[in-house]
Amino acid sequence: MNLIEVKSGEKVAGKIKKLTEKQVVKLKGNRKFQFDWSKESKNEVYALLKKDNNEILGLCSIIYVPEELRIHLNLIESSIPNQGKKKLIAGIPGCLIGYICEISFKQGYDGFVSLLSKTRLVDYYHNKFGFLHMGNYMVVFLDLSQAIITKYLKNG
Question: Contact, 140 vs 101, CB < 8 A?
Fold first, then answer.
């Protein structure tokens, strides 16, 4: 995984784990996150953990849309210490998005992943990961998804 400690430039070992519904509900009131993740308990939620101490660095929630052969990234968030210009660890969103792209390929969806972006983040998703506009959604698929997987999951 391509996680980097910003101050030292050293790689950080990480792992991604699917959370149970009970584990997601227990996230309610977690001060390391801005969103109330317990509201995502009916969706599939994945946590990016720091390997050495299982600290949750980031979370994402997905919804399968089999009739459209895509996975919808419903919510994604880095923990508060890992957000913005003063973040401690870089690469968290990329690793989570890359993991969801892998799931999409395994499902036979050709890496098709969608999200609905807040207006202020549209440029971020486009410039950082290559997401394209498709109707109201931003999407990646095929080569774009593979590039994210390679950059964030294979080069770490």
Answer: yes
Contacts 24+ apart (CB under 8 A), 103-108: 103/62, 103/71, 104/70, 104/71, 104/141, 104/145, 105/145, 107/64, 107/66, 107/69, 107/71, 108/69
Contact at 8 Å (CB) between 87 and 134? no
Handedness of CA 26, 97, 83, 115 (dihedral sign): negative
Could you tell me the residue ranges of all domains in the chain?
A: 4-154
The stretches in the chain having pLDDT less than 70 are 155-156
Please choose, from the candidates 48, 53, 52, the residue with its C-alpha nearest in 3D space to the C-alpha of residue 17.
48
d(Cα 146, Cα 119) in Å, to the nearest integer? 25
Query: What fold is seen in the domain 4-154?
Result: Aminopeptidase (3.40.630)
The structure's pTM equals 0.95
- Give the residue among 79, 87, 82, 92 at the shortest CA–CA distance from 35: 79
- Beta-strand (E) ranges in the chain? 4-5, 14-19, 44-50, 56-65, 70-78, 89-90, 113-115, 132-134, 137-140
CA distance 60 to 94: 11
